Amino acid sequence: MEATLYPPVKRFFENLGFTVKGEIRGCDLVATRADGELVVVGELKLGFSFELLLQAIDRMAVADEVWLAVPATRRGRDQDRRAHKLCRLLGIGLLTVNAARERVDILVEPAPYRPRPNTQKRRQLLKEFHARRGDPTEGGSTRRPIMTAYRQTALACAAALREADSRPRDLRAITPDAAAILQRNVYGWFERVRLGWYRLAPAGQRAVADAFPENGVPEP
Q1: For residues 130 and 155, what is the distance between their CA atoms, to the nearest angstrom?
Q2: Is 154 helix (H, G, I), strand (E, B) or coil?
Q3: Are 104 and 23 in the same domain?
Q4: Would you state the pLDDT for residue 158?
Q5: Taking the CB of residue 56, how many other CB atoms lie within 10 A of it?
Q6: 135 vs 32, more confident
Q7: Which partner from 24, 25, 98, 123 sits 20 to 30 angstroms from 39, CA to CA?
Q8: In the listed set 84, 108, 132, which residue is the last one of a domain according to the structure?
Q9: What's the pLDDT score for residue 220?
Q10: pLDDT of amino acid 215
Q11: CA gap 49, 53 in Å, rounded
Q12: Residue 124: CA atoms inside 13 Å, Cβ hemisphere, count?
């Protein structure tokens, strides 16, 4: 039961110099310092959940710090780094409790979240954004391949090969990467007919027909 979490969590805050009381106006735990300037609210639950986060957000209006306390597990949501990141983002503390050993561990402290910028992923994100022509895939789509910039370019090469066998240099007006696209053949759309010459494979013919049902040709 959740009440089994209360004694070790209470001792945890008392060891930090707080006076602790349980079940104060709907809060599982309330702790204050002698000066009364710092008010801490703790919520005790048997598992980390979205509902627990919503409850913690409500408590932030009346507390200087909000802590969540859940039983310690080996592979549960309390060990999920994404859950830790979410707590940091919200400024909520997270404790795990081993009631049998009377042990409390801090996983996340309630402090403003300052994520470390990932400049490489940001560049990749913007590169793909600017490389795509138009907005070919609706957000949330799951039942069809995502129309990436690479797929768009490969389709344009495939549409050009629909007319006749070609060499990579004949497709440079579409993309300077034509040679790499034909040679890598990621989607299985191309066939090499002889040295330096390529034609459209059956899979490529189907892909072009699906992408351009009215025989339209994409702009380079």
Answers
A1: 18
A2: helix
A3: yes
A4: 95
A5: 24
A6: 32
A7: 98
A8: 108
A9: 44
A10: 54
A11: 7
A12: 5
Residue 150 and residue 76 in one domain: no
| pLDDT interval class at 170 (50, 70, 90) | very high
Both tokens of 52, joined, read 């627990």
DSSP secondary-structure letter at 47?
A: S
pTM of full prediction above 0.85 = no
Specify burial of residue 160 (Cβ count, 10 A radius: 0-12, 13-18, 19+).
buried
**Average pLDDT, stretch 39-65?**
88
198: β partners: 166, 192
pLDDT higher than threshold 90 for residue 93: yes
**Mean pLDDT to the nearest integer, 8-35:** 86
CATH of the domain at 101: 3.40.1350.10
Q: What is the DSSP letter of 175?
A: -
195 is written with which tokens?
A: 């040295």
pLDDT reported for residue 201: 94
Handedness of CA 54, 56, 58, 64 (dihedral sign): negative
Q: What's the CA gap between 171 and 220, in Å, rounded?
A: 10
User: What is the CB neighbour count within 10 angstroms for residue 171?
Assistant: 22
Paired sense of beta strands 39-44 and 19-24, if any: unpaired
- Domain membership of residue 186 (yes or no) is yes
CB 190 within 8 A of CB 158: yes
Distance of CA 120 to the CA centre of its chain: 16
Same domain, 6 and 104: yes
Structural domain for 153, as ranges: 145-220
The secondary structure of residue 70, as a DSSP letter, is: E
**Secondary structure of the chain: what % helix, strand, coil (to 5)?**
40, 20, 40
Name the more confident of 108 and 143: 108
